[in-house]
Amino acid sequence: MALLGPQFIYTIIVFVLLAKLGKFYSYGRYLLCNKLFRYLSPNSEELKKTVRNHYKNHTKNKKLNRLFEIDDNKEDFNIPEGAIIELSVSPVQPYDLHFIKYSDDFQSFVDVSLISIIIFISTETYMAFIQPNDEINLSVIWCGMIIVYGLATLALTTRNYLKTSEGGLLIISAGFSFILSLLIQLADSKYLDFQLQDAFRNISSNAFSLIQNSLQAEEITNQNPPKAIKKNLKSSTSTNDLLFTCFIASLSSLIGALVFFPAFRQAKLHFLSLKYSQKSKLKRFVLHLSLIFPILVSACWIKTQNNESLQIKTASKNISSIQKFINLLNYENSDSKFTVLYSAKSLFLNILFAKNLKIYLVLILFFMRLALFRHYMQSYLNLAYEIAANTRKQSAKVTSTKFISSISSIYQYYGVVASHYIIPLYMLLFMVFLLKTLGNYSWCGDIQFCNNFVNLISNWSSNFQKNTTYSPNLFKRLETSHFNLSQSHDALNKILTQDVLRSIIGYFTFWTNTIWFTISCFGLFYYNYIDNQYSE
Q1: Do 5 and 485 touch, CB atoms closer than 8 A?
Q2: Do the beta carbons of residue 421 and residue 262 sit within 8 Å?
Q3: Nearest CA to 260 among 431, 432, 424?
Q4: If DSSP codes are grouped into helix, strand and coil, which group holds residue 88?
């Protein structure tokens, strides 16, 4: 079996076909235009008519009306207090998206992410049912590509904030993220289940053993003996641990700086959505649930006092979750209230600290916030109506050019708001996909029915792999290159084991989810209390 296998050809064909279809059927364009309405800014002539009508209705003296007459050649004029300005409403059309900043980046990111999700699902199905031995899971490359693409898109939008007065907030956010990351790594051994220091030591020991084996194989141990390498490695462990901790904290501060404005934007959208959904209790419940749901995701990495004591002791090790639940209900005497409370607590902790629970919680969070996308974006577009309504109450003079630019800027930055909302969500989703694939998690967990079904199909498909064919002599160069590639892949697997990848990817998944939620809470506190005091 080739190292890449049929996945390589399949992924290229799927990507080309879906990229061609994306010109006609774009999911990103559908998200931006689906049942959304925008407010059109009036031109200067329409504003002149409304101002003149306002003066005619509020001043009965004709001499005073002449004082407030507006010259037709004058483009910039003041809008009086109490002037009623009506805004026309228009649905968001695909041809209107060209006037939006970063709309092309949003559409391309969402379309490529959808293609990567389709490739990931098909590749996971292939790897679960076929179970090839020597093939690389190419969905890992697609997941990593989307994460890097999302960070690059956020960096483009964040670069514009550095030129303004808000650029100092990024430095504060990066410093806060660096300190918080150091505190989380200090609490890792006691309270959290990352084990980053153990992962780094495993990387060092695996790399040392690999170098030692290669030196012994090439018989050059006299030039650089393994004992000297081992002494140098032991003497620099504390320094390397500190460097590794600072490196992880630096990457965390970079993510925290890039996620700062999207998290603040999330808080603003949540504040506006709650304002427009006061009559519907169900909408408010779903909005609050989507806001606090990341707490459940972060709670999956909390370390208990003894993880083994949380698991229910049963006779067999391969017992299903349903049988665990039945044994839990029948635990000791059912008449005792203490036993019922203990069994309920044990059931809750077993569900909470399941290995694959974090994957399903992130999927629920993704679909929940994706379903609320239209509601959040419509709340943002309604800001244009609020600006027009606030001009009636403002006692200060508002010029016509400033009013038109403020109304039109809401729609112009619609692509930036949509990107800030959707990109961290997709990044979190693909981080969980990487965690599932490289961390050797299972979709089925300990459900026997699901595992038996997958094993049945994999055994049935293994019958087609019995007849092996050999390549002719013309492909010897290809076979040697495949051999070298497989050797490097095996060496990389020896250094970056499943435990190492599980701890590192799990940490960054936890960090992205936690820092996004933390900054959103700060932003919600700002818009609820501080901003309201200044506006009043």
Answers
A1: no
A2: yes
A3: 424
A4: strand
